[in-house]
């Protein structure tokens, strides 16, 4: 019940410059979405790192091939 009330207050104070509202949005956001966001963020970051490494290797490999062909 406390979390529901906090969520309502956070929604009402979302677009106002009230410190209490910002605190409550942060708290409810962490309470509800922290675990899922951490999982998604970690998964996405790992995939992004893998993909960027693959892309860099592929591009450097093609550059080396082009340089050796000439």
Short description:
With 70 residues, the chain is an all-alpha fold. It is 89% helix and 0% strand.
3D structure, described in words:
This protein is mainly alpha-helical. It has one domain (2-69). The protein is built from two helices and no strands. It has helices spanning 2-12, 19-69. Helix 1 crosses helix 2 (19-69). The longest helix has 51 residues, at 19-69. The radius of gyration is 23 Å and the shape is rod-shaped. Residues 17-24 have low confidence and may be disordered.
List keywords for this structure.
70 residues, mainly alpha, 2 helices
Count of DSSP E strands? 0
Whole-number tally of structural domains: 1
Biggest sheet statistics: none
Distance between the termini: 72 Å
Task: Give the overall pLDDT as a whole number.
Answer: 57
Helix content: over 70%
Supply Rg. Answer: 23 Å
* Uncertain runs: 17-24
Large-scale geometry: rod-shaped
**Helix count, DSSP H or I runs of 4 or more residues:** 2
Residues in β-strands, percent: under 5%
Element string (H = helix, E = strand): HH
The secondary structure category is mainly alpha
Give the SSE map.
Blueprint: H1 2-12, H2 19-69
